[in-house]
Amino acid sequence: MDQLLLNTGFPILSVLIFLPLAGAVLLLLTKNDAICKNITLLVTSLVAILSIWLICGFDKSSAQFQFGEHYSWINSFNINYTIGVDGISILLILMTTFIMPFCILASWSYIKTRIQTFMICMLIMETAMIGVFAALDFVLFYVLWEAMLIPMYMLIAIWGGPRKIYASIKFFLYTLSGSILLLVGIIWLYTANNYSFYIPDMMWQDYSLTAQTYLFIAFFLAFAIKVPMFPFHTWLPAAHVEAPTAGSVVLASILLKMGTYGFLRFALPITPEATVVLMPYVLWLSIAGIIYGGFTALAQSDMKKLIAYSSVGHMGFVTLGIFVLNIEGVEGAILQMVNHGITTGALFLCVGMIYERTHSRELKAATGLGKYMPIFITFLAFFSLSSFGFPGTNSFVGEFMILAGAFEFDTSLGRFPYLALAAIPGAVLAAAYMLRMLQKVIWGGTDNPDQSWISDLNLREIVTLSPFLFFVFWIGLGPQPFLDLIHTSVVQLLDQFHAHQATTVAANMLLN
Amino acid sequence: MLFLPELTLLGAGLTLFIFSLGKPSSGKIRNLALSLAAVTFLATMLCIYSEGTLFYNSYKVDFFSQFFKVLIALATFIVLIFSGKLDGIKEDIQPEYYLFLFMSVLGLMMLVSSVELLAIFISLELSSFAVYLMVPMRKAGKMGGAQVEAGIKYLLYGVVATGLMLYGMSYIYGLTGSTHLGVIADKLSRMYNQPAAVIAVVLVLAGFFYKLALVPLHFWVPDVYEGASNETTSFIATVPKLAAVALLIRIVTLVTPDGNVMTKVLMVCAIASMFYGNLSALVQTDVKRLLGFSGISHAGFVLLGLLTFDLTGYATAMYYIVGYVFMNLACFLVVCTVAQNGNNVSIDDLTGLHKRAPLLALTLTVGLFALAGIPPLVGFTGKFMLLVGALKQGYLLLVTLAAINTAIAIYYYLSIVRITFCTDDADRGSVITGRFHYILCFSLILIIIIMGTIPQKFIDITTTAVQTLV
User: Fold this and answer.
1) SS3 for B346?
2) Virtual torsion, Cα B268, B270, B276, B282, nearest 10 deg
3) What is the mean pLDDT of residues A58-76?
4) Contact A177 B415 (CB under 8 A)
5) SS3 content of chain A, % helix, strand, coil (to 5)
6) Please, what's the b/e burial string for B91-130 (b: 16 or more CB within 10 A of its CB; e: otherwise)?
7) For residues B408 and B271, what is the distance between their CA atoms, to the nearest angstrom?
8) DSSP A168-234
9) CB atoms within 10 A of CB B150
């Protein structure tokens, strides 16, 4: 347990996790829609404010898990309630807590039916999402990881678009079947580690390469489907397109990050040798995702679909950054996870706002809005620029670091810069599809539909979007505070990773 | 005192018999049956810690048996509550229906205490024959003669299973010269790897495989589930399974752990049950039939606990079957309530249930997600512990196949959830639910969630229960 700094004071992490759940229980008591909305907004904002505590108390110079809490849960199987935060998870938790209130704000007038159920689903989602990032017990992690499927399924299946049934079932089946083998892997690790589910105990152990390979495949299936990596991405466009705005935002900003978080937290430390062996395949799949996502996005006429496919490309960059296994790459990947959460979340909010007005997600129906919605267009333009990594915005920093990492990519055969070169067209494609969308929405052509009746954003919508814009520029212009938070953990992760490689290589040489 | 629950049931049976001679009203007889069930439940609770043996050591009262008796009484009570006025049963024979129901429960209670082959046989037959009669007592209604067909099928398959079991018992007697389980265990332990012993034990197990609906003795399930009235199916799908698992545990403990062949036999049955049940359930449209097939796959999961041949495994199997009974009760509660005039419920009949009866829709959803094994509900915790137990013994392939099965099963459970929660139908009227239903729904939901999230207490209880066996 030496990796875990126990929190003796106020149990801030547990409060963050369970406050939304308590809010959900509270909602059961009322049937009034307005009260439901207000309570949910209040609870999520409170969680967001409380989570600032995490940054204040977080020791940047330590790679340990901080704010740790440890209680016994199921003794007979040595399952505990163990939670903690390190540099890899802290930004993701903060992103979760900060995005949730704005999801609620965005649903204020969008969701018209069964508001109570909707808010309960959102609150349960928040509990599960924060819990997944904080869990240090593998069973706790898995329980929350799976439990999340129910509210998310409901979000898509009840408040979704015309093909919601198809999309929700596809989402559920895909994600669940992916994580089934993860469960078997978890239990195998439990038996291999003296019957312990404590995640740090499982790291950096000398499992045989065969075992590691199977484990890695189990991890990979679960996480690659969640990311989603090409060719496991097909559930994503369906789910994104059909989900209500808040659902799309949660899905894009937070749920997808769980896949990449899983790679960092589990695949690298638990199966280091297998990671090295299978790394090339993952890297080329990432490149395939970047290029494929870009080309497909270019061909979309549905705005949500366009952003969904752009997500496939962006997440390809993230996995690329993780698996080049150097500091620039991994730090860039973590930063890019946050960036993608902010930018894509904001873009989905924008499309949702158009949808509320025109009741269509078709690009054709939304052309020529620039004249009538100047405020909206300003936001949309900045988010689009951010999406394709325009210098000065957040994604530029992230993508730059990932590409820098990719250029430095070292293999046993020496440098391999072609990987980064292969990813470059993806960045160009991103500019192409984003600018194409932007051009159409702002100016369109001579055959624009009559948009003169459309009203610009109201105050609530401006309040919803502004913080996203703020972070776009903050991370774009001054990313250092964010990188400081993650630096120590990433350095330690990679140091241990390479040290572990060295010892195994040494051991193999001795054997030969 | 040792025999109090059984005596109570016997008394209940006699009371109902007297009433069946007259022509009591449907409501009156229902209240009577409900109170008798409640009294039985109290009696079992009262005797939960009693210990001792009766009838020349052929009847053992210990925590294991008493625990199962409590559950049997509780599950019966719950089934009776949501059965309402027995819409599916002809009115003039309702007292007899209750009479047979109580007799069947009596048989099951005696079964969990029996430690002697003949006692086991008699109790099993008592419980089965009563149910054979309950199945065809359904109103003809829309079904035509299906209820009779179901009854006959149930009887014939049952008789075959019993025959197999008796044959196995004769082998055991031949090998050991005794019908008492204690003596048998002792003697069998010296010849566990003899083909005759293995065949004998497997044949005896067959009788309970039948009750639990495990492949290859599952053929009766779909037709009986569909043909029997909703109330009868609710009973068949829950209460006898408890007793079957109790007896399976008792008999499996006869086998020495390194009985390698036994493990393989159970393993094959487990995997076959899971795949058969889940794959067949995928294409069902009748809710009861679907739950029947899902029951086959769940029975396969229970076997995962038994084939580990260790105490934790048995305890988990117990935990799982208890959880399964509650999940199933939640689903059948909805089926019985939604059914109109005691007709069968197809998946389409659940359209828009969230509007017509929000609480029922929630109960069904929780029950189905639990059956599907989604955390944090009891189905997940049970499955998880079973998988852990099996993998501890090194059965990686088995665990992987079982895990794949959970993924298959999701689809059909989800398709019901989808219908109940995500469709609207203005044409169908709202469902009338009584006050009892509210309490029952909430309690079942709570049990399913609590057993799933804080299972330690339940595991402790089942472990203590299993420990009394050895």
Assistant:
1) strand
2) -150
3) 88
4) no
5) 75, 5, 20
6) eeebbbbbbbbbbbbbbbbbbbbbbbbebbbbbbbbbbbb
7) 13
8) HHHHHHHHHHHHHHHHHHHHHHHHHTTS--BHHHHTT----HHHHHHHHHHHHHHHHHHTTPTTS-T
9) 25
- Rounded Cα distance between B28 and B32, Å, is 6
Token pair recorded at residue B425 = 């139908």
Phi, psi of A82 (to 5 degrees): -120, 125
Strand partners, B52: B61
Q: For the beta carbon of residue A55, count every other beta carbon within 10 angstroms.
A: 13
Which of B418, B459, B464 should one mutate to test binding to chain A, selecting the residue with the greatest count of A CBs within 10 A?
A: B418
The structure tokens 């572990």 sit at A500
The answer to whether the beta carbons of residues B89 and B231 sit under 8 Å apart is yes
Chain B positions with Cβ closer than 8 Å to A: 312, 369, 374-376, 380, 384-385, 387-388, 391-392, 396, 399-400, 403-404, 406-407, 410-411, 414-415, 418, 421-422, 454-456, 459-460, 463
Of B375, B399, B415, the CB nearest to A184: B399
Q: What residues does each domain of chain A span?
A: 4-511
d(CA A216, CA A222): 10
More confident site: A444 or B132: B132
pLDDT tens-place string over residues A329-357: 999 999 999 999 999 999 999 999 988 88
* CA-closest candidate to residue A80, choices A64, A69, A66: A69
> CA of A304, closest CA in chain B: separation in Å?
22
Check if the beta carbon of residue A316 is closer than 8 Å to that of residue A426: yes
Read off the pLDDT of residues B260-312 as tens digits, 9 standing for 90 and up: 788 888 889 999 999 999 999 988 888 889 999 999 999 999 999 888 888 88
Residue bearing tokens 């061909």: A299
Would an 8 Å CB–CB cutoff place A166 in contact with chain B? no
Pure H helices in B357-434: 358-372, 378-392, 396-422
Record: contact B399-A191, CB cut-off 8 A: no
Nearest 5°: phi and psi at A357?
A: -90, -45
Mean pLDDT across B146-166: 89
**Min Cα–Cα distance to chain B from A183, Å:** 8
3-state class (DSSP) for residue B50: coil
Which residue spans within B103-261 are E strands per DSSP? none
Determine contact: A197 vs chain B, CB below 8 A: no
The pLDDT of residue B197 is: 83
Q: What residue type is B340 in one-letter code?
A: Q
User: Rounded distance, CA B209 to CA B329, Å?
Assistant: 21
Q: Which chain B residue's Cα is nearest to A78?
A: B456
Q: Which residues of chain A are within 8 Å of residue B375 when distances are taken between CB atoms?
A: 142-144, 146-147
pLDDT at A273 over 60: yes
Nearest to B318 by CA among B217, B236, B389: B389
pLDDT score of A2 more than 80: no
Rounded to the nearest 10 degrees, what angle do helices B146-176 and B117-134 cross at?
180
Which residues in chain B are closer than 8 Å to A180, comparing Cβ atoms? Answer: 403-404, 406-407
The answer to whether the CB of B210 falls within 8 A of the CB of B217 is: yes
pLDDT (0 to 100) of residue A140: 93
Pairing status of strand A65-74 against strand A79-85: antiparallel
Judge if the upstream peptide bond of residue B216 is cis by omega within 30 degrees of 0.
yes
In angstroms and rounded to an integer, the radius of gyration of the C-alpha atoms of chain A is 22
Phi-psi region of B373 (alpha: psi -120 to 50; beta: other; left: phi over 0): left
Cα distance between residue A356 and residue A358, in whole Å: 6
Interface test with A, best of B374, B392, B462 (most A CBs within 10 A): B374
Distance of CA A61 to the CA centre of its chain: 25
Q: For residue A448, how many other CB atoms are within 10 A of its CB?
A: 16
